[in-house]
Amino acid sequence: MKAARLALRTLAREWRSGELGVLLLALAVAVGALTGVGFLVGRIGAAVALQATSVLAADIRLRSPQPIGAEYFAEAARRGLHSARATTLLSVVFNGDASQLTDLEAVTAGYPLRGRVLLADAPFAPGVPAQGIPPPGEVWPASKLLVAVDGRVGRELSIGAAKLRIGRVLIARPDQGGTFAELSPSLIMNAADLPATRLIQPGSRVTYAALFAGDRARIEAFEIWLRAHKRPDERLRDISDASPQVRNAVDRAGRFLSLASLVSVLLCAIAVAMAARRYVHRHLDTVALLKTLGATRRFTLSVALLQLLALALLAALLGSALGFLAQEWLLRTIRGLLATPELPPVSLTPIAVGFLTAVAVLAGFALPPLTQLVRVPAVRVLRRDVGPPPPLTLLAFGPAIAVVLLLIWWMVPERSLFLWVSAGLAGFVAVLTLAGAALVALAGRLRGRVGVAWRYGVANLARRRAESLVQLVAFGTGIMVLLLLGIIRGDLNSDWRRTLPPDLPNYFFINIPPDQRADFIAYLHGLGARTTRVLPMIRGRLTAINGVSVESTPRGREDRENFATREQNLTWTAELGADNRIIAGHWWTPADFGKPLVSLASEFQESLGLRLGDHLTFDIAGESVEATVASVRKVKWDSFQPNFFIVFAPGALEGAAGTYMTSAYFTPGTARSLAQLARRFPSVSIFDIDDLLGEVRAVLDKAALAVQSVFVFTLLAGFTVLLAAVQSSRDERRYESAVLRTLGASRSIVAQGVLAEFATLGALAGLLAAAGAVVAAFYLTREWLELRYAFELWPWAAGISGGALLVAAGGWLATRSVVRQPPLTTLRA
Amino acid sequence: MNVTTTPSAAARAARDHVLKAENLCKQVSSPEGPLTIVADVSLEIARGESVAVAGPSGAGKSTLLALLAGLDLPSAGRVWLDGTDLTGLDEDGRARLRAQRVGFVFQSFHLIPALTALENVMLPLELAGNPEARRAAGATLQRVGLKERTAHYPRQLSGGEQQRVAIARAFVTQPAVLFADEPTGNLDSATGARVGELLFELNSNAHTTLVLVTHDRGLAARCARMLHMEGGRLL
Question: What ipTM was estimated for this complex?
Answer without folding.
Answer: 0.83
